[in-house]
Amino acid sequence: MDNVVITKESDARGSFCPGPLMELIRMVKGGQVGEVFAVISSDAGSQKDIPAWVAKAGHEFLGSEPAEGAMRFLVRKAK
Amino acid sequence: MKQIVILGGGTGGTLMANLLAKKLGRREAEITLVSNSPWHLYQPGWLYVPFGWQEATALQRPLKDLLHRNVQLHVDGVRSLDRVGKTVSLGSGKTIPYDFLVVATGSHLHPELVPGLAEAADHFYSEAAALRLREKLLDFKGGTVLIGIGGLPYKCPVAPLEFTFLLDDYLRRQGLRDVTSIQYTFPINAVFTIPTVAELAEVKMREKGIAIETFFNLESIDPARKIATSLEGSEVAFDLAVFIPPHRGAEFLWGHPIADADGWVDVSRTSLQSKVDPSIWAIGDTTNLPISKAGSTAHFEGPVVAAQIVSAVRGQVLEPGQAEYNGRVMCFLEVGEDKATLLDFDYSAPPMPKEPSTLVHFEKLLFNQAYWHLVPTAVV
């Protein structure tokens, strides 16, 4: 995902509460259409939970990649 | 002599001022606390006010009574922060210089950010709102109560869950539970963010006949039709809506170089120091850290920042790993029927809550009283 410009990223490693998905939702809700948001998560559930919310909310899941010993998930706000 | 200024008279700011006053001599530093209110509030107590189980007036005490004699208190709002000139400008026009600054101005409610929320929904995140909800519950004769989160982030993450369980208790005691449908909604695909807690809570909700809708992020409320709409496309009708309003940092921080557009201060997750200014720290709700916005968080963060400031005042160098915040938070979770459990976690270990018990429920009630003597006063 080298060509993707991240608007805002949150390091949510070790964040059990509110957790990486809530953090991602917070950023996407507060952003502009077209912007890309990233969250770094050490939570195993994020692989499933993040794409599930992105699909339900109608945004674009750009994928995930290793980062900081955890995983970075990228989402583009689509509406 | 160094000037240390602390902004905010809540749990974080008060204990910060007291910690520093206990550790530093009068010739080493002058410690000033700025608060926009003469009162120190115990916000977790508002959870019980709507049910008539807690007097709101007992949840505030004069801030000056909680402060060490070496702390100078200014009751005034903060208008602006000049980090180049190292001064804070107050609402009265007064300007206070600092060498070291701790921002602990908390999180603030902004229901106006969601269409229809202020008009049609209630909550218990302020004294006024909790009392208004009390009145509505006194008049309530049955129907649908819809509970949810009106915006992210929000403080005290477990409170909406606790409110749901306590509401179930309350309605049963009033003989209204059979004519009430309680519907709980939550932004993610579980009833809570921590899997162990979500599992425990969901079982309890099913036992108590509480309906659940997950992936529900409130977008708007139609006050006339009494319908709440989520960004995920769901519409739910209600008779009484309890939605936690969106939160923002203090206004002087909106778009400030040390914070983001919403006023959350950008800090290191371990040192709690501003990423753009080494003479500024932030603790409690006001940080941008993706961790619980809770008094407990500020309680564990305070000593970390105090150790760094004391070292800075004395020109000492800290060892690597010394004075680092490990993400620790400790919260009670009420689950109704006079039972509660304790959540204790940090960056490396999720909470493993024990089976809820009456003992822990009474520990919470005890803590609510002991708070005044132990926490803001920096005794523990």
Q: Count all strands of chain B and give the number.
A: 22
CATH fold description of the largest domain in chain B = FAD/NAD(P)-binding domain
Structural class of chain A: alpha+beta
Q: What is the class of the largest domain in chain B in the CATH system?
A: Alpha Beta
Strand arrangement, largest sheet of chain B? 5-2-1-9-20
N-to-C SSE series of chain A?
A: EHEHEE
Largest interface: A-B, 24 and 29 residues
Indicate the CATH architecture of chain A: 2-Layer Sandwich
Q: Which architecture of the largest domain in chain B per CATH?
A: 3-Layer(bba) Sandwich
Instruction: Give the tally of structural domains of chain A.
Output: 1
Name of the CATH homologous superfamily of chain A:
TusA-like domain
CATH superfamily of the largest domain in chain B: FAD/NAD(P)-binding domain
Instruction: Please compute the radius of gyration of chain A using only Cα atoms.
Output: 11 Å
Reading the helices and strands of chain B in chain order gives: EHEEEEEEEEEHEHEHEHEEEEEEEHEEH
State the share of residues found in helices of chain A, binned by percent: 25-40%
Could you name the key traits of this structure?
heterodimer, A: 79 residues, alpha+beta, Translation Initiation Factor IF3, 2 helices, 29% helix, B: 380 residues, alpha/beta, FAD/NAD(P)-binding domain, 2 domains, five-stranded parallel β-sheet, 7 helices, 26% strand
